[in-house]
Specification:
The protein is mainly alpha-helical and 270 residues long. The protein is built from 14 helices and no strands. It has two domains: 143 residues, Alpha Horseshoe (Serine Threonine Protein Phosphatase 5, Tetratricopeptide repeat); 125 residues, Tetratricopeptide repeat domain (Serine Threonine Protein Phosphatase 5, Tetratricopeptide repeat, Alpha Horseshoe), CATH 1.25.40.10. It is globular. The relative contact order is 0.08.
């Protein structure tokens, strides 16, 4: 269903898509939410998007980017094949989708800085491109670029509506960037706000609200202030939002163990 009429179809953030299938677009948006909240693997949603429009590049790109982020040899090989398939379909993609293809191709080749430059350029034109924010943050974190983790979402946030389901995720990215730049009071405040917004948005939804980067931001803020008991209590309070079905779980369990060790509670850490 990818054809010229696809130029008129946009996602919920007003970004042009390379598909004319609303079902495919909805499944891709579900996969994006799953990726940004670490709620679960996005693969079932991406499979459904591909089935709804086998000629659309974006689901292939989402899958490739997800696998590259796992940083496992088998996943990197699958990602390479997915990017080759996406490149073969690129003539029907939107300009933004082709830019993501270029960025992921560079990432696959180990050119992380080049990929990040493409995402930064994309965000100048499309500050509500959640995928660019998500991937750029992920790879900035991998290479320890705290300044970019703070500045990139800070530039984008004024263009976002706080009613957007992904706004809490973007606010969580900013909160974590602030924590990594030692602005711990603001990091904690915005991290808590991001979680409260997500909980209000998903009060009756399944799965429940999940904003792991915001939980992580508050966790780092407390760790940096020596608030070890507060940190352990915080992670326990937020546990439903980061344990089951999230790739963030092992890291936050590690943080919880650190809090108990800092308080000399070895049994609690174990």
């Amino acid at each position: 269903m990818t054809n010229a009429s696809a130029e008129t179809l946009r996602d919920s953030r007003g970004l042009r898509l390379g598909t004319s299938s609303r079902a495919a677009a909805d499944h891709a948006d579900e996969a994006l939410w799953q990726m940004m909240t670490f709620a679960d693997t996005p693969r079932l949603a991406l499979q459904a998007a591909c089935e709804a429009d086998a000629g659309w590049t974006l689901p292939l790109l989402l899958d490739a980017g997800f696998r590259l982020g796992l940083n496992q040899p088998d996943d990197r090989e699958v990602a390479r094949d997915l990017l080759a398939s996406a490149a073969a379909l690129a003539s029907g993609a939107s300009a933004r989708e082709r830019a993501h293809l270029d960025a992921l191709t560079r990432l696959q080749d180990g050119r992380v800085s080049a990929a990040l430059r493409i995402w930064d350029d994309l965000l100048l034109e499309h500050p509500r491109d959640a995928l660019a924010l998500h991937w750029a943050h992920q790879w900035d974190h991998a290479r320890g670029d705290s300044t970019s983790m703070r500045l990139r979402p800070a530039r984008a946030l004024p263009e976002w509506d706080d009613a957007d389901p992904l706004f809490p995720c973007v606010l969580g990215l900013y909160a974590f960037g602030l924590a990594e730049c030692h602005q711990v009071a603001l990091a904690e405040d915005l991290g808590r706000r991001a979680i409260a917004l997500a909980q209000a948005q998903r009060a009756d939804a399944d799965p429940p609200a999940r904003v792991p980067w915001a939980v992580h931001a508050v966790t780092h803020a407390m760790e940096m202030q020596g608030r070890f008991d507060d940190g352990a209590i915080w992670l326990r309070q937020q546990q439903t939002g980061w344990t089951d079905g999230t790739l963030f779980a092992s890291h936050l369990w590690w943080h919880l163990a650190l809090f108990r060790l800092e308080a000399l509670d070895v049994n609690g850490a174990l």
